[in-house]
Amino acid sequence: MPSAVRARARALPGYPGPRHWRQVPVTGQHYVDVGAGDPVLLLHGNPSWSYLWRGLLGTLSPDFRCVAPDLPGLGLSPRCPEPLRSVDRLERHLACLDQLVDRIAAGQERPARRWTLVVHDWGGLIGLAWTLRHPQKVGRLVVLNSVAFPWPAGHRLPAHLRWIRGSAPVAALALATNAFPRAALRRGVVRRLGAAERMAYLLPFADAHHRRTAVELVRNLPRDAHDPVWRLLVGLEDLDADRGLAGLPVFIGWGMRDALFTPTVLDEWIRRFPQARVRRYRDAGHLVMEDAAGELDRHVRDFLLGT
Question: Scanning 148, 152, 182, 267, which has its CA 20 to 30 A from the CA of 104?
């Protein structure tokens, strides 16, 4: 991220200041580290970055240590030097997540308790794949409008995602005009964001180089149940007690007016985690943390505190 953009990022409304910014030495991945207590790892999706967690960071940090990374190629993290296939890109995300968690653990005087994993959008696929590889490290799961399994029968992507995924000229136009992040902000909320909030969301996508990853992630969206990316999630439905995930405490917070992650996708989460505590936010869209700000934050905090 250019220094000029970093300088502008210092005035992001509601976002933790630079004294909470960190980088993983090996990968250069940027993350926010705020609060103290049992660790909470928050994984965003696309096209977004750790800014969308600012409400939860403020609510949870008095009781928990909150770590919110920018996924490789997004936010304030370095851009990937070359295009990658979906499986290779996911493997890179998982490797960076390993480096981040190892760094956090190495800096603690006592072994950390299990992490609470909070996922949204693309972060669900990454987070659940990582959990299946490291079940002993995850103690609780918070799912917000996300997916970690093949799309349910009859599910259809919104038109703008189908166009970007299926047409090279449309993808090139999205890359040149920043249309995808702008469309995501318009379509992703029921409550219109303020000008400062919109600018903050769009800041990391200032030019074509910085938004390339966002477009490539759409181009690599799994097309069907046979896509190789789903192989990294084999076993999600057959979790046994020995792996430590069968009785995992789960909170699901769902914006019910999401055109991408529809109520049908929510039903699939509930089928896989019938023990989950579920909250449906009727007047919230894809960015449920924006439309249900405050209410969602309190519900997540209550869940983590066991109330």
Answer: 148
